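Why does residue order matter? Because the sequence determines the fold. Keep that principle in mind as you read this record.
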Amino acid sequence: MLHSREVPTKHRRHAITETPEVKEALDELRRELGTDRVPLGEIVIAGAQTEVARMRAERYKAKAARHTVAEWIRTKQIPGDPEAAEEVRRTGWTPHT
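Structure:
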């Protein structure tokens, strides 16, 4: 029997379709490697690590920005033009035309 419903491993399996974008990226890697075989496991690991790092950096950046704003509020040293802010508070925001 060639096909079985049982998976010969306990690990999850993934199928990758070579869409034009994926093919272009893999073809470039194939040329660099000098072979048609690409280390998909290594590529997935590297991509996942890169994406995790990017996501963590975004979260850190957002947290730092929130901390900065909180510090401005705590110290009552909010940057900006106090007169313009007071005018907007009094008259409301009307875009210039």
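The chain has a mean pLDDT of 89.
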